[in-house]
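Q: I'm a student working through a structural biology exercise. My instructor gave each of us a protein and asked us to get a predicted structure, then write a short paragraph describing it. Mine is SDR family oxidoreductase. I'm not confident about reading structure output yet, so if you can add a plain explanation after the tokens, that would really help. Here is the sequence I was given:
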Amino acid sequence: MSVEKVAVVVAGGSGMGAAAAKRLAADGFKVAILSSSGKGEALAKELGGLGVTGSNQSNDDLQRLVDLTLGRFGRIDVLVNSGGHGPRAPILEITDEQWRTGMDVYLMNVIRPVRIVAPQMIKQKGGAIINISTAWVAEPNAMFPTSAVFRAGVTAYTKIFANTYAADNVRMNNVLPGWIDSLPATEERRDSVPMQRYGTSEEVAATIAFLASEGAGYITGQNIRVDGGVIRAL
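A: Happy to help. First, here is the predicted structure for SDR family oxidoreductase. I'll explain a few features afterward.
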């Protein structure tokens, strides 16, 4: 008898998070979605899953999501960590409060759910965690300073986590999207992409689905760019 696989998508009400939830459901996963807007609950209902309206900045909301998921499905095989947008300003004009907000949006949005979900995966002796980061994590862009700084922290966190829990068959990887169609389109940004187009949320979701699959079972601690060739560093 095959085991039904379960995926939790944090900040999955719209954009790349929602696309990931749809793709994982299409691949046969039961999905549980957290979003602050209520859109995640509606999408989860549409996909035959479980939705919670709450914030990825609240440990209580995240714990409620995990408790409900385990109560209904009994396991968690995949965790996808998405997020919103943090403060943007010239780097010397960013206040202490804005830096703290950026940390919540771009770094703690990974650390909080992983701290709650990973023990279940370790207990199961298997699981895949995929964090949606940014293509510019190794080549910082002054347009997005809080994203650049704290998502570099996600890369370090991922390497430490992957090394620590690889023997438990719990994997963590980062997907690094470039200019994606969930963002406002501009001609200048499109022209900066070697493929001369914006990527789609569905293309990011397909990469997430691969990293969640058994075919990616030997991949951990990696950063996978989905950016049309914008960044070509090793």
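A: Here are two points you could use in your paragraph. The CA atoms of residues 51 and 100 lie 28 Å apart. The longest strand covers residues 170-177. It's a good idea to check both against the output above yourself.
Q: Great, thank you!
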